[in-house]
Structures are given as C-alpha cells and as structure tokens.
Design brief:
Oligomer: homodimer
Strand order of the largest sheet of chain A: 5-4-3-6-7-10-11
Number of strands of chain A: 17
Largest sheet of chain A: 7 strands, parallel
Radius of gyration of chain A: 28 Å
CATH architecture of the largest domain in chain A: 3-Layer(aba) Sandwich
CATH class of the largest domain in chain A: Alpha Beta
Structural class of chain A: alpha/beta
Strand content of chain A: 5-15%
CATH superfamily of the largest domain in chain A: Glycogen Phosphorylase B
Helix content of chain A: 40-55%
Chain lengths: ~525, ~525
C-alpha cells in the first residue's frame, strides 16, 4: 500500500465502498492513543468489529502500536512532517533514570527544575504533534471530503491526545471518549465537580481522607494542573480552534460537550467522587477469564508445589530498571520458596536464584488467573491492576512513572498491596514486603473481596461500553445526559456574581439603615447641642 | 389481629418464624411513606417478594394506603398516641384552595405569610409524627430485641419521612433509599454537589439555563430550603440522635451515609446535573406495557373514531378543583371532536359535553398505552409523567401542588407539554392548549423521542433496583461507592480553611517583602535626609 499525501489510498477507497454498499452496523471513526492505551482501544475496536460495525482508525506515520493493516479496521495514515518518536522505549528509560536520580536525592534543585522543565517541554511536544495531525487532516481537502461523504455515525477517541475532538466538531459527529487521562490530568476534572478537599488531583498520590497539609498541597497540584493545561497543552488546540472555527469556539468547551465518557475507572479501585450522568464506568473492561498456559510454562508453575508462584512485570513502557535495583530484587527472589516468573527485558540481574525464570513476554492474564500464582510484583499501570483485581491476586507495588504511584496507593489503602519506593529498594526490604504479602492472608482476602465487588455488576464493563457507543449511534448523540453548564463564565458557574450582588445589596441596605439612623437620631442631637452652645 | 403496645403480635411471631426457618432470600425491613409514594414502594415490595425475599413493613395506626395485611409482606404497626391524619384528602383540598386564592392575587400579604406559616407548621407536624414513630419503636424493648434477633439484611426506605435511618443505625443495617424527595427538598441536594448556578432548587420552577435574576432567586430558594431543613425538619430527628446515640451523631450524616440511593429520576426528564457513584437512577421503574381495557371502556374509546381520546386525571391527593374551574374545563372539552375520559371525584362540573365520560377511577397506564389516546391532561405528579413518557403521550399540564410545577416545566421545555396556570384558567385558554397539543405534531413527536430514549436502557429501571438492593445484601453494604466527605466540617469541604491559609500566607509574604523593602530602601533615605537637615 502506497501513501498518497495525507491519506492511505486504499483506506479511502474501502471507506467510500463501505458508504456506497451500506452496512447493517454503524461507521465509526477512531482516534486512538498509542502505547498501552491502544491495548484498551483495540479491544473495543475488535468487539465493535465483531458487532458488525465498520471501523476507520486514524494513525500517523510515527504510530508505534497502531498498525496500518488489520482485519478489524481500515486505517487512515497521516504523514507527520517531523517525526519525533516519543513513544520510543529509550525515551522512557532515560526519563525514568533521571527521575530515580532526583528521587534518590542525588540531584540539585537546578537539576530538578531542569528535569521538570524537560518534562513540560516533552508534554508540549507530544501535544504539538497531536495537533499537527489535525492540521494535516484539515489541510487535506480530499481526505476531509471523503470523511464527510462517508457519513460516519460516531467518533470514538482516547482524549489522552485530544486532537480528534476538532475533527469530530468539523464533521459534526457525536463523540464518545474512551478515557481515563485527558490533556494533563484525570478526565473527571474536566467534566465533573471535583472538590479538592477530598478528590486527590492527578500527580499527587494521597488518600481521599487528607490532613490540612495534604489538602493544601492537593490544591497546589490542582492549580499546577490548571496552569499546565492552560499554558502548555491547550494553546496547541485553541490555536487550531480559532483558525478553523473562529474566535468563539473554545477547545475546552469542545471537550466538555462530547456525548459519553466511557471512563476506565471502577470505584472498587478508585476513591468515590462526584460524577456526571454522561460518564459510564468501564474500569476493568479488558479483564477476561484466564486460558490454559503454554505447556512449558504450566510445567514450571506446577513445579512450584504448594508454595506457588510469584510473577513480576513492569509493563510495556519501561525496558528495565538499573541493574543495581534488579540485582537487589533477584537476590530477594532467590530467598523465597516460591518459583518466580519475571518479565525482564534489560541486562540480566546479578544474584539470580534457581527459582527465577526470566521471560521477554508472559501471558499475564492467564498467569494471574492460575490458582498457583500467589502474588504479583507490578509497576501499577491500570491494565495490570485491573487484571490483578479481577483475579484477586495481591500486589507488591514498584511504582515508576505517571499515575502508578496513585494507583498503587489506592490498592495499599484497601489492604491489597504493599508498595515500595524503588529508589530506596534493598534486597531485605523487598524480601520483607514479598513475605508480608505471601504470608499475611489479609492481603489475599482483601484482594478477593475487591474481586467479588468488581465482578458483581448488572452489566459487564465491555457490554456497557458497546451499549453506550451504540446508544449514541441510535439516537445521534446523548445531549440529554450532558450539562452545558461548562459554557457559563466561571464566575457565574460558581455563583460569584450572585454572591457579590447579594453581599453588596445587604451592605447597601445596612448602609441606608445606618444613614437613616444617623439622620434621624444624631442630627437632632447635634442641633440640640449647637443650640445649647 | 390485636395490637399489643407498640407492635403487632402476629407480625412479630411471623418475623421470628422466618428467622428460625431461614429462607433462600433475604430479610428486608421497609419504612415506606404513605400516599402516592406507597404506590412506588409497594411495586418494589411485590417484586422483592416474588424474588423470594421476606419483607417486613413498618406502618403506623394512622397509615392510609399501607395496609396491615398483605400477601407480600408482614407488617409491624406502631400505635401513635396522637393521630393527626395529614394524609387526609380534605387536608389537601383546603390547602389547595388557599393556595389558589393566594395565586389568584385575592389574598393579602398577611394571608400569604399566614399560609406559609401554616405550611411550615404542617411540615413540622408531619416530621414530628414521623420521629414519634421512631420514639415508639425505641421505647418498645421487646420490638427492638425482636428486630435485632430477626437479623435483617437490609433496611429499604423512602426518606420523604426519614425516621427509619435512626432505626437502621440502631440495628447497624445497610440501607437503601427509594427516593426522590427527602426532608424538605430533592434528594440529590443532600448527597451530590449541586451548583445552584444551573441546578434548580426544590420549590422553584425554573430551567437549568437561568438568567441572573433566576440564579439569584434560585440561591434564595436554596438557602430557604437549608433554613427549613435546619430549623423545621432536622430538629425532630437530631433530638432523637442526641438522645439515643449521643451528641456526636448527626442526623444529616446518617442520611448521607446510607449505601445506595435508588433515585426515582431519569435524565430524559430531569435536567442533567452532578451525581454520585452510589446513586442509581430508577426513574419510571413503575412503567409497564398496557393491558387490554375493560370492554365498556374499550367500547367508549373505539367510539371516538379517528379523532381519538383525551384523558384527564389530577392524581391521588386532590379530590377535585373548585367547580368554577372544572366547569371551564368541561366547556372546553365539549368543543373538541375527541372523546374525553376524566377521572373526577368532586361535584359534577357544569357545561359537561356529551363526549365527556366522568369516572371515579381509570386504568391510567392501560389508557395511556392505547393507540387512540391522543393527549393526557395531568397535574404533573411524577408517576403520571413517567407513564406518559413511557407511552409517548403529550401532556396538557395543570400543576397544583409541590413539585408538579417543576415537573411540568421540564416536559414543556422539551416540547412535549403545554402548561397552564390553573388560577387563570378559562375555557378558551384551555381549549387553545388542548388544540395545540392535539394538532401540532411536534408535541407527539417530542414525547415519542423522550419515550424512545427512556426505554433504551441496558437494564430496565426495576431490574436495576432489584440488582442494587440484592448487591447491598450480598456484600453487606456498598461502602466503596459512597464518600465520607460529608463528615468533613463545611469549611474544610469547601477548602475555605486552605484558601484562607493561602491568602494569609501570600499576604504575609507580601508584607514581609514590603517591610524589607521599607527597611532597606526608605530608612537609608530618611537617614540621609536627617543628616542633610
């Protein structure tokens, strides 16, 4: 398949054919986010394809996980003029190493500021690229006309990179988000009231019951996130809004006006908080019963006897921890009677025990569902956490990046995980944490309780996602479920104008009364006084 | 059956027998509210009974709709020493007449204040009675011991009269509310953030998109409701909290701490607004497909030919409107080609046409589901409105009391109803409204759109109610879905302490900088000046 400027040729032809021939299902335009986010979106796409919908996925020439060819979707590949592959593993490894250095206290204030600055620059660059994808689409009149002609029923998108809302707005299509993170924070903060007195903000790992200091810090993080949104993220998209839709269209209002938020959250795991009628919770929609293990892995697992197995994985983004840390972990593993399966990509750690099997990839869900798996050493990405909850396996947490600290804190507060600081990790500390989770039955029973609650739903999360996607297609939106309060000026939304008016009115009444009192009572006194003089 | 002090004897024996013999279902203690509320609760009770649960209903000797004997439940009858039957129809007729007089402008300011005072006194008396029921239960050690021994799984209650929460707290039972109204307002206001800038408060019929004046009035109503709650309603229950649970137990916290709110709301009808994870929407759970009409009624309906039928009902509470008004209505009905079925209890109106059939009772749901029924003249009670939405029948609204004004405004804003002011009703005006709704197809098509949206649910509202009631029974509560933020002091909840601290800190920093500037810059100047002098 050869790319013509701005769009994959065959994709267009298929897309138009679909339109001409018609279909019993709907036509869905998908804007995914790469990396682990794609794992989630792809699951939805496969399900929607199986339900007879025609899916068109918008990807860029720098897409990493999102392949051009698939039996489940047609793709439109946008060539980005300048490809900075931020979805490169090395980027995250170097990012992680700098962060570990700072957390270990080995960096100066200047290094910290420089690291933070670099982080913001990267964030800005990611969103500049994402907005550039929109520019490339809008510039391509042929593509835009073809998208218009296809008469899509819906835009389904991951607003982690939210450019797709501009395309959806241009095509006047109802939109569904598959979301947890949006622009620079957790999705709820854009659309639902979020009292910072008990709702921890993104980037601050803190319980929902906070001390005064924690509440003050939480508010600081809240304003920090607003600043990042306002000055780092939104300008990229607001510029395009002004350019293509005129000065009255605000990027934030576009985000807030979408129909359904399929939120990858479950309150078994997340702290309870205010929500909105158009937020549908699909946390753990990727979870499924485990399948049989490959025979060699099953043999290894069975060889663990009654002691069982511990599995370890640090997710898709990070290739590996520094060898000093992995060697401490390996030494601890070597001391436990359990067998260990460790998904490990970097340099082989020293002090590796005979009980430990290093693998480049493992069937994580099938292992977690295996009765012999006793604990899961995890970095705290949401996919892995939901799988652990689904199968009721307690966790030893090694948070590294992003939301992983917050995620693991939630599990720890529910008594289902022990969390360690990777920058202070010692063999002894790791061993102690492992033994706690393996030997204290409360970790397992708490995780099993979460599992029972998580599985007990009137409609399974994936079915819920399909229902609401198809609901929006059937009814051409879900306007009755969303407020337009976001379009109010902020002072009106918070009633500050009314409160000011009431205060001024009360003061005016008091002042009038005081003045009248002064005129009626004091003046005669003064007159009498003057007369007496 | 003879009442022993404070409890029906046989009920107790059955209750204990149920406990001894065991059951596959659960044991549910129900605190209902009488009148139209009971219609809803009874539907849940019948369903739960059919699902093999054992239901015990707490009623008083003055109960009106809630019968002592039923095949679906066992009852416990609490003899109230002083029976003031506020659930008497005459009470509402006289109440309505006074209100009509005031609305027609025929009453002085003094009469208005006296009417409002009377309303508050009645409200206080209703809650005094409801709290007295709790006192009678707590005083009866035999009853309380028997309730304890029965080991109920759940308290299910309508918190319109919220005394049951005290009993649930005493018995330490998980609790589910079947709710729309609670104490003096709409249930959401107790448990979910409710920005008064776009959430209309109870008792103020206004759209969600308000002018500045409307927002100011909405805030006034909000504070009025808080005052009524604080000074008229809560004292009755807070006194009991202090008496039985000590000074640390707050009645409001008990309300806010219950497990699941089965909210009789659907956003097809209600304005979208913030909600909470433990609110489950079951609006319209009473709706069901229509059955065949009795043969005589079917014959009457069929005799309408292509013109069809208009039906009219003003609900269960109001016996009838003054004859001057009903005669205007009758005269208008006489002029339309449709046949009319009118549920009417009072004096026969003058000018009644041949096309109008007065009945004492009608199978409202079966009529609304009949294809010949073209319009519904209704008072705007929620049960009737949900039935009209379910069957897609447009409404001519005659709101009389309570929430009926707000309910009908919502339908009107959706283009599915025409609402009239009953105090200014003329034959001509009523005829015009009827003809509009009958002849302009938009009313019907809007109502049918609402009907399609309302019926398109992944789980029907009644099934949702059963699921969540049984969920709470299975897991002994749903603590993971409710925040405990309500237990924070109000200033902390709203972060006022943090904001004050931050403001003071900023001011302190500014003051310090200013002082240092003063010391460093101005003092040398002054010194120089002094020296020069």
């Amino acid at each position: 398949m050869r790319n013509i400027p701005g769009v994959t040729c065959v994709a267009l032809i298929i897309s138009v054919l679909v339109n001409i021939l018609g279909s019993h299902g709907g036509k869905i335009l998908v804007f995914p986010v790469d990396g682990s986010h794609w794992v989630n979106m792809n699951l939805l796409i496969k399900g929607l394809h199986a339900r007879n919908h025609n899916i068109t996925v918008v990807r860029s020439t720098s897409s990493w996980y999102v392949k051009e060819k698939s039996i489940h979707y047609t793709s439109i590949t946008i060539p980005l003029p300048e490809v900075i592959s931020i979805e490169d593993q090395d980027f995250f490894v170097s990012f992680l190493q700098k962060m570990l250095e700072i957390q270990q206290g080995g960096a100066s204030v200047l290094a910290f500021i420089s690291f933070y600055w670099e982080m913001l620059t990267s964030l800005s660059e990611i969103h500049r690229q994402a907005s550039q994808l929109v520019v490339e689409m809008f510039r391509n009149a042929l593509l835009m006309q073809s998208l218009q002609d296809t008469q899509f029923d819906l835009v389904l998108m991951d607003p982690g990179l939210p450019g797709g809302v501009l395309v959806a707005h241009q095509l006047q299509l109802p939109t569904v988000f598959n979301v947890r993170w949006i622009t620079s924070g957790e999705g709820h903060f854009i659309v639902a009231p979020s009292p910072v007195s008990y709702v921890p903000t993104s980037g601050y790992a803190v319980p929902d019951k906070m001390t005064f200091t924690q509440r003050a810090k939480n508010m600081f993080h809240y304003f920090l996130n607003i600043c990042i949104d306002t000055f780092v993220v939104s300008p990229h998209y607001n510029r395009l809004c002004t350019q293509y839709f005129g000065p009255d269209t605000n990027f934030y209002h576009l985000l807030q006006s979408i129909d359904i938020w399929l939120m990858r959250v479950d309150f078994v795991f997340e702290f309870p908080r205010p929500t909105m009628p158009n937020i549908v919770y699909i946390g753990g929609f990727q979870c499924k019963p485990s399948k049989a293990l490959p025979s060699d892995l099953e043999e290894f697992v069975q060889s663990s006897g009654d002691h069982g197995v511990v599995i370890m994985s640090l997710g898709t983004l990070v290739k590996g921890l520094p060898i000093e840390i992995t060697s401490e972990i390996a030494a601890a593993f070597a001391q436990i009677p359990q067998k260990v399966i460790w998904r490990h990509l970097g340099e082989q750690p020293k002090k590796l025990g005979n009980n430990t099997l290093l693998v480049h990839w493992m069937p994580q869900n099938d292992l977690l569902g295996h009765p012999k798996v006793k604990a899961f050493v995890a970095h705290g990405g949401t996919n892995g956490i939901y799988e652990a909850i689904y199968h009721g396996v307690p966790v030893v947490g090694l948070p590294l990046l992003f939301d992983q600290f917050e995620n693991l804190l939630r599990l720890e507060l529910r008594g289902a995980a022990k969390v360690l600081d990777v920058t202070k990790l010692t063999s002894q500390g790791f061993l102690q944490a492992l033994q706690d989770v393996l030997q204290d039955p409360s970790y397992r029973s708490n995780m099993e309780r979460l599992s029972r609650l998580h599985r007990d739903k009137p409609l399974q999360p994936l079915d819920s996602a399909f229902f609401w996607i198809e609901f929006v297609m059937r009814h051409k939106g879900a306007a009755h479920l969303r407020t337009e309060s976001c379009k109010m000026p902020w002072y009106a939304y918070h009633s500050l104008d009314v409160i000011s008016f009431l205060i001024v009115s009360v003061l005016a009444v008091l002042a009038t009364v005081a003045a009248m009192f002064h005129i009626l009572c004091c003046r005669p006194c003064r007159t009498r006084k003057l007369k007496q003089e």
